[in-house]
Amino acid sequence: MQAKALGESLKDTKFDYIFTSDLKRAHWTSQQILKNQADPKPPLVVSELLREQHFGEGEQKPFSDGSRWVRQPGRVFKFPGGESLTDVRKRADQAVEQFIEPILRECRGRPATSKHVAVVAHGIFNSEFLGALMARRKMNAPLEWCYRGMTNTGWTKAEVGYADEANIETTTRISTNPSGPISPSSAPSSPPSSTPNPDNLEPLVIKVLCSDVTDHLQGVVRQKGGLGSQSYDEKQEDIRKFFGGGGGK
């Protein structure tokens, strides 16, 4: 219901590209957005790069203070066989370079509204994806980071362009405060790394216009179980093989 409501609410926004994780919840949501797009519909690009953080042996385990499965603070902690936040950030950097960079080059010199792109992913990955973009700001300026994840199907909108062509000031503060419960997979324990990208890509200007927009959820009954009601996606188990050189399915 929530994904369908989101798709209907975005029907008047003409997207040029939709990029989505191949995991069930995000993929289903992206299909609802695509379904409500006018013809000709934009391409739907499905990628394992946009998957949620993999918790290894911690997958499907109860996350609580009284459990042995407690995520430790910091960006390098990982459960056995899983990913750290730093690992997720590397995927986010790769996604920006592979999917967003070509669009930025195509739109150089055009208004920020010349192309509309939807990225449909997951809580922690969304945080790292925003962090990957913000780290590309000119001179890597300080950033006040208060990102606490987003409500299920909540969305954030930003204008992105190259710094040498933009006439807007970049956002220096990211803040979200989800209206719903925060699941362990949607609340990063620390801000994303501000280390400049290693490929010396051109600096960007990013203006965050709104964050965690949930107007489409008014009158929608929350599914039983809240944010964690979606069944576990066995595809998530393939992520170690995929990024370890063993191939993914």
Automatic annotation (TrEMBL):
<dbReference type="GO" id="GO:0005829">
    <property type="term" value="C:cytosol"/>
</dbReference>
<dbReference type="GO" id="GO:0004331">
    <property type="term" value="F:fructose-2,6-bisphosphate 2-phosphatase activity"/>
</dbReference>
<feature type="binding site">
    <location>
        <position position="25"/>
    </location>
    <ligand>
        <name>substrate</name>
    </ligand>
</feature>
<dbReference type="Pfam" id="PF00300">
    <property type="entry name" value="His_Phos_1"/>
</dbReference>
<dbReference type="InterPro" id="IPR051695">
    <property type="entry name" value="Phosphoglycerate_Mutase"/>
</dbReference>
<protein>
    <recommendedName>
        <fullName>Phosphoglycerate mutase</fullName>
    </recommendedName>
</protein>
<dbReference type="GO" id="GO:0045820">
    <property type="term" value="P:negative regulation of glycolytic process"/>
</dbReference>
<feature type="compositionally biased region" description="Low complexity">
    <location>
        <begin position="178"/>
        <end position="188"/>
    </location>
</feature>
<feature type="region of interest" description="Disordered">
    <location>
        <begin position="171"/>
        <end position="201"/>
    </location>
</feature>
<dbReference type="InterPro" id="IPR013078">
    <property type="entry name" value="His_Pase_superF_clade-1"/>
</dbReference>
<dbReference type="InterPro" id="IPR029033">
    <property type="entry name" value="His_PPase_superfam"/>
</dbReference>
<dbReference type="GO" id="GO:0043456">
    <property type="term" value="P:regulation of pentose-phosphate shunt"/>
</dbReference>
<keyword id="KW-0378">Hydrolase</keyword>
